[in-house]
Amino acid sequence: MRNSSWRAMLRSPLVVVVLVVLVWFVATFLVLPNATLLISTFFPDGKISFRALEKLVSSERALNSLWHSFALAATLAVTVNVVGIFIVLVTDYFKIRGSRVLWLGYATTLIYGGIVLAAGYNFIYGKYGFITNAVRNVFPDIDPNWFSGYFAVVVVMTLATTTNHMLFLGSSLAKIDYQTIEAARNMGASTWRILWRIVLPALRPMIFAVTVLTFLTGLGALTAPLVLGGTDFQTIAPMILTFSKSSGSRDLAALLAIILGLATIVLLAMMNRVEKSGTYFSVAKVATPLQKQPIRNPVANVLVHVVAYMLFVIYALPVLLIVLFSFLEANAISTGTITWDAFTLANYATVFGTPAVLKPFVVSVVYSALASLIVVLGMLFVARVFQKHRNPMTSLLEYLLHIPWILPTILIALALVMTFDRPNPLIGGQVLTGTTMLLLVAYVIIKIPFTLRLLKAAFASVPESLEDAARILGAGPLFTLRTVLVPLVLPTAAAITALNFNSLLDDYDAAVFLYHPLYEPLGLAIRASTEGENNLDAMSITFVYTVLLMIIMGFTMWLVYGRGGASRRRRRSRPGRPRGGAGAAAVPVPMPVPVPVAAAAVTVAAVPAAVPAAAPGSQP
Question: So what's the pLDDT on residue 181?
Fold first, then answer.
């Protein structure tokens, strides 16, 4: 990376404009809101006050929510690792019949999550769910609330958050040197001894990183406890949402959000410290690719196959039922009985033929598309400046842009609400709270760290000789950026845009705080459909919404991974094709983040060549 002096940086008018806009944005939307939140909590009248802390100590609901959040996080750290490691081993390490089919089943959480996933499980297993009603038709004494509370939240979030294991742990497993496994086998080590003494220790850094991210996911969980937790199991995030609705308890909501943010910062600091002191055997570049290992014990082989396919059914069944239910009348779902007469296209006709019903879907698509385009276009210039000009100012700005990775989404949303509910000179004396703009601003903020990280990596992979050649030929900095550099990083930028669009479509965490009453996003419409038994029509419409979301997200994942993987395989199959060159180096493969946004930071441990080291930083 080329070091540049302050004078060289400030000589470029484009760089000056980018820095001025960036400083304004960071000060207005990242620093000021969080400072306002702290001041309003601990200095409400200009003097230090611990009134919010006293409210917390005296509130049994608030204290219970803290306990529930940490208990949920600790439980998920165990259950997600057990299930996640198992599904990675049966799809990528052991020789299991139908492993590709199993992978497709386990990967269903890549195409739906958050409020959609929680609502789907509630419609299937909840009090008014299809499975619950079908079982009660045979056994009337079954408790209709069996799938609620702590148990239901743990089950749903365990299945939802194993996506990190499939993406990151699977990538690390593929980089283990197969020669070490062969050497151990030649020395008489059994399959299980190799697994415990060689494979799992090599994956330990990534397992630890994913465990921390899983803990953070459980700590800040909102949608799963909100939809499935019931009255007896509410965590910090739902309590923040409840307390923030009243001006008298907003300081308590702010304090809970601050506690959540502090816990996040401490855990991420621990993760970074352990990563820096670790040895990453799993990322060594080796000549011998990993080969799948047979399970030689016949009993163990049968048991592993049975458990693997049982998990496949658990993962895939909700997706299949959601597609099926989208073609059923609401009464058939509510009674738990399916007949041929119950199948209909009326649900799809209602969604596409009724503007009021389609509106939440369109609103979410517009918000997601605008935020994805804005953040990628803005970060293209910022990432280039950061990559080319390294000095204390750009380093500080880069760290500040990672604030959304450090703080939970609900804290960011609450801070924006409390800051822009009055005229602010930094935005021309305007009030943003209650307008359509604030949610768009929040979406842009949330996606900045992930976008910046990968775009900066893309620019770093472009050979400097190309820029030097353009300069020798007389091209100016702006012309070089537009005609030489941007085309090389455009595939990565397009992939990031698609992934950001995917993750924002069904957002609930930020939308519930910041949405405009006349433009309700899809996440809130889905949440409303889960409340009460009289919402049968809304339930059917939600199934259609979910199918549409899964189609869009599945198509996006294919564009980002499937098509790229196929082209890479075709390139490898062509003999004599050069492996170097600008085109090969310019597009690092981005990693998607379906659960906490901090997951992208784990790629530092897994793929150090793709993402330069920096600081890391929500889910059902």
Answer: 83
For residues 396-411, one letter each, b for 16 or more C-beta atoms within 10 angstroms of the residue's C-beta and e for the rest, the string is ebbebbbbbbbbbbbb
- pLDDT per residue over 192-213, tens digit each? 888 888 888 888 888 887 888 8
- Decide: helix, strand or coil at residue 516: strand
- Residues whose CB is less than 8 angstroms from the CB of residue 89 and which lie 6 or more positions away in sequence, other chains included: 195
CATH architecture classification, 23-314+353-535+550-617: Orthogonal Bundle (1.10)
pLDDT tens per residue across span 19-40:
899 999 999 999 999 888 888 8
pLDDT at 476: 64
CA distance 153 to 105: 21
Nearest alpha carbon to residue 290 among 567, 585, 91, 104: 91
CB contact set of 455 (below 8 Å; sequence gap of 6+):
376, 379, 380, 383, 489, 492, 493, 496
CA distances from 265 to 55, 409, 466 (A): 24, 13, 40
What is the Cα–Cα distance from 134 to 14, expressed in whole angstroms?
64
Residue 284 pLDDT exceeds 80: no
Q: b vs e for 427-447, b when ≥16 Cβ sit within 10 Å of the residue's Cβ?
A: beeeebeeeeebbbbbbbbbb
- For residue 44, is pLDDT > 80? no
Of residues 603, 384, 591, the one with CA closest to residue 496: 591
Identify the burial level of 232 via C-beta atoms within 10 angstroms of its C-beta, where 0-12 means exposed, 13-18 middle and 19 or more buried.
exposed
Distance CA 271, CA 501 (A): 28
**DSSP output for 183-243:** HHHHTT--HHHHIIIIIHHHTHHHHHHHHHHHHHHHHT--HHHHHHSTTT---HHHHHHHH
pLDDT digits (tens, 9 = 90+) for 421-435: 888 898 888 889 889
**What are the φ/ψ torsions at residue 488 (nearest 5 degrees)?**
-75, -35
Global pTM reads 0.78
Integer Cα distance of 200 and 194 in angstroms? 9
Residue type at position 35: A
> Is 443:367 a contact under the CB 8 Å cutoff?
yes
- Token representation of residue 485: 């550099």
Residues in a beta bridge with 343: 328
Cα Rg of the chain (Å, integer): 25
Report how far apart, in Å, the C-alpha atoms of 95 and of each of 107, 211, 469 are: 19, 26, 50
CB 341 within 8 A of CB 326: no
Reference 452, options 611, 276, 222; nearest CA is 611
Query: What is the SS3 string spanning 112-167?
Result: CCHHHHHHHHHHHHCCCCHHHHHHHHHCCCCCCCCCCHHHHHHHHHHHHHCHHHHH
What six digits make up the tokens of 560?
A: 């980002």
- The pLDDT score that the predictor gives to residue 24 is 94
CA 456 vs. chain centroid, Å, equals 20
Instruction: For the chain, give percent helix, strand, coil, nearest 5.
Output: 70, 0, 25
